[in-house]
Structures are given as C-alpha cells and as structure tokens.
Design a protein that fits this description.
Blueprint lengths: L1 E7 L5 H11 L9 E11 L2 E10 L5 E7 L2 H40 L1
Parallel strand pairs: 1-2
Antiparallel strand pairs: 2-3, 3-4
Helix pairs in contact: 1-2
Organism: Ignatzschineria ureiclastica
Pfam family, one: Ribosomal_S30AE
InterPro entries: HPF/YfiA_ribosome-assoc (IPR050574), RHF-like (IPR036567), RHF/RaiA (IPR003489)
Length: 111
C-alpha cells in the first residue's frame, strides 16, 4: 500500500512518520484491495487534526478524520475510525455474497 503524507501548518517529524506507518500498515489485514492512502496532518488553533482517505480497488473510497490537542492521539483515533469503516465494508460485502448464494440455492430447489 502506498501512503502519501502531507503536513499543513506543521513539520513532519520522523516520529510522526513512523507512527503513521506503524498504524496504517496494519490496515492491509482488513482488506487486500487497498491501493493507497493519503494522510493529512494539520494544525489549526491548537487543535491537531489527522485525516485519511483510503483508495480501495473493489469498493468505495473511505475517509475519516480525528481532532485532538495531541497529534499522536489524533493519529490513534484516526486508525480506530478507519479500521471500523473497513470492517463494516467487509461485513457488507460478505452479507451480499451470502444473500446471492442463498438466492441461487432457492432457485435450484425450485427448479
């Protein structure tokens, strides 16, 4: 997965880069279809915001945002939010596949 990192109003330190790589490298275990991620870190009026947009090959792109007074806390919250979105998307896909399989079986039984 390709991770693009952008800082708005703050300098991207090695610590921030390593934290982002650590948190978002784990996202690949939820979906094999993630093609890229764009992470934006910004500082506005003592509020530190982290945003992510995930590009997914088989599905809709996902976006999440987290704001707190500490950038590392924002990154952690952001990772949790995007993981929940990925799990929800995966569950929806599995449910749709199951419904399709049930419909096919019902058609076979009727025939």
């Amino acid at each position: 997965m390709n991770v693009n990192l952008t800082g708005q109003g703050l300098e991207l330190t090695d610590g921030l880069r390593s934290r982002i790589e650590e948190k978002f490298s784990k996202l690949e275990r939820f979906s094999d279809h993630i093609t890229g991620a764009h992470v934006i870190l910004s500082l506005k009026d003592k509020q530190q915001t982290a945003e992510i947009t995930l590009n997914i090959a088989k599905g809709k792109d996902l976006h999440a945002e987290a704001t707190s007074e500490d950038m590392y806390q924002s990154i952690d919250e952001l990772a949790g939010k995007i993981e929940r979105q990925l799990l929800k998307q995966k569950e929806k896909a599995m449910t749709a596949e199951r419904k399709q399989g049930q419909e096919i079986r019902q058609e076979e039984e009727e025939a």
